[in-house]
Amino acid sequence: MPRIAPLDYSNLTPEQEWAVQRFKDGQIGAVRGPAEAWLRSPGIADPCRQLVEFCRYNTSLPREVIEIAILLTGRHWRAQVEFWGHSRMARQVGIPDDVIEAIRTGERPSLDSADLQIAYDLVSEYFARNRVSPANYARAIEAFGEQGLVELIGAVGLYGLVSMTLNIFEAQVPAGETPPFEE
């Protein structure tokens, strides 16, 4: 992250060492992405790690629903690293390139599943209006239940934090990769 120096792993506080180990031992398996910044405050780093692990690996929602929500969040915040990284993850769970590209450019994608359409409509409407219509709310409750809707909202909020962290600390896509958004 260009705005902050990489952590000096030989000079961590005991709290930072503990938090680093939690990243390495957990489902994430490494310190990456916004964790480099979050570890400046271990009290933030570990709860964020737990929420990332829940939203990525343990939610009741299908993985592709979560990835659509993350892509929409990355697009909303124009988070280069977030959108770039989750474009790859979205492909891994079967989201086609044309859907990813439509989200990147702000177009409505052609989605082949009702769950993806409902997630897209709910998150897009929220980002556009800061509210969700009764119709989209009812569709989401019917599709995902209260638990699933809370988890979807949680993922969007978490990845807003991820996007803001990456943007503020000016994280860059890896060398040789093209950022998804023009600066």
Radius of gyration: 17 Å
- Class by helix and strand content? mainly alpha
The main pleated sheet reads as: none
How far apart are the first and last residues' alpha carbons, in Å? 17 Å
Beta-strand content bin? under 5%
- Unreliably modeled segments: none
Helix content: 55-70%
Q: Write down how many β-strands occur, each being a DSSP E stretch of 2 or more residues.
A: 0
Molecular structure report:
The chain is mainly α and 183 residues long. It has 2 domains: 12-58; 63-168. Helices cover 66% and strands 0% of the residues. The protein has helices spanning 14-25, 35-38, 42-58, 63-77, 80-92, 97-105, 114-129, 134-168. Helix 3 (42-58) crosses helix 8, helix 4 (63-77) packs antiparallel against helix 5 and helix 4 runs parallel beside helix 6 (97-105). The longest helix is centred in the C-terminal third of the chain and has 35 residues, at 134-168. The chain is globular, with a radius of gyration of 17 Å. The chain starts with 13 loop residues before the first helix and ends in a 15-residue tail after the last helix. The mean pLDDT is 94.
